[in-house]
């Protein structure tokens, strides 16, 4: 074990500075009770390097997890003990992927809870059922059990009234931000639902033989479809449309890929939310320039 004596002999002899020669010796590690921490964290070697495959792999051996550790096994005269209060788990069969969860003990209610991302559920079975042989636990957290002779520390200074006021003000500001954020989420959710309904209406409604079409920059329509304007303002488009029109006041076919044809109703909608900017308005008939069409 970690505290077992280690014999140094043979090629592993200890070099003695006094004797100026190598000598047989015994080395061991001692732990003083005064150095025992209030919280003890044990890391299980679940992930190791496989020299055969040159990859990291997960050790899935079942490990019995004690609910309480008595330090008497390491320090015969010690009466210090630790109680399990937390366990981090890794679900998965490989070291490169998986899911992390945590079992946490709540002292005030003497109950265990399972933390799984944002989901927190009470553990309705006794701890012994999931501590007996765990293949997922990789870190254990133990808390030192207080003893009657342990004196609580009384030298901790109380915060000054100024600091208390600062903390209270910070908490109040945080609560305001949380409330404002929740309201903003509701507004954005409603705005996204409205935009989705408008998108479905305009995309599914044929243009028909309208008197005129509006040709706009494709990036403007894309920004509207993606909802880039929802929640913040979008700068007006400054691109000129004269480059898309030939001298005969018709649309140049070689520039058509940069434009999208929309109805007048959708164009007004774009102007009101994403500032569509200049557009090319052409008749529904003969809007292609045949001269440029032949040149292309």
Low-confidence stretches: none
Instruction: Specify the helix fraction band.
Output: 25-40%
What top-tier CATH class of the largest domain fits best? Alpha Beta
Going by helix content, strand content and strand pairing, the class is alpha+beta
Per CATH, the architecture of the largest domain is Alpha-Beta Complex
- What radius of gyration results from the CA coordinates? 36 Å
Which homologous superfamily in CATH is the superfamily of the largest domain? Cysteine proteinases
Strand content: 25-35%
Shape: elongated
Number of helices: 5
- What is the succession of H and E elements? EEEEEEEEEEEEHEHEHEHEH
Number of domains: 3
Cα distance spanning the termini: 83 Å
Largest sheet: 7 strands, antiparallel
What is the third-level CATH name, the topology of the largest domain?
Cathepsin B, Chain A
Average pLDDT, rounded to a whole number, is 80
């Amino acid at each position: 074990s970690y505290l077992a004596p280690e014999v140094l002999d043979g090629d592993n002899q200890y070099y003695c500075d006094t004797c100026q020669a190598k000598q047989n010796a015994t080395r061991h590690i001692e732990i003083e009770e005064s150095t025992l921490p209030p919280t003890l964290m044990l890391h299980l070697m679940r992930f190791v390097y496989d020299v055969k495959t040159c990859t990291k792999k997960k050790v899935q051996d079942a490990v019995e997890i004690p609910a309480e550790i008595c330090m008497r096994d390491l320090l015969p005269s010690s009466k210090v003990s630790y109680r399990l209060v937390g366990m981090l788990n890794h679900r998965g069969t490989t070291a490169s992927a998986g899911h992390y969860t945590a079992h946490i003990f709540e002292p005030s209610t003497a109950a265990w809870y399972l933390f799984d991302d944002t989901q927190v559920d009470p553990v309705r079975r006794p701890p012994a059922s999931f501590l007996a042989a765990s293949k997922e636990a990789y870190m254990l957290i133990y808390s030192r059990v207080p003893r009657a002779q342990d004196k609580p520390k009384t030298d901790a200074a109380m915060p000054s009234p100024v600091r208390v006021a600062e903390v209270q003000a910070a908490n109040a500001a945080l609560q305001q931000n949380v409330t404002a954020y929740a309201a903003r989420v509701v507004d954005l959710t409603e705005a996204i639902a409205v935009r989705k309904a408008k998108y479905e209406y305009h995309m599914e409604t044929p243009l028909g033989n309208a008197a005129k079409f509006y040709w706009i920059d494709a990036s403007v329509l894309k920004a509207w479809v993606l909802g880039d304007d929802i929640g913040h303002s979008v700068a007006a488009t400054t691109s000129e449309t004269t480059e898309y029109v030939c001298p005969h006041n018709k649309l140049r076919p070689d520039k058509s890929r940069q434009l999208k044809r929309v109805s007048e109703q959708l164009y007004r909608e774009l102007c009101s939310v994403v500032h569509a900017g200049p557009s090319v308005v052409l008749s529904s008939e003969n809007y292609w320039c045949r001269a440029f069409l032949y040149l292309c």
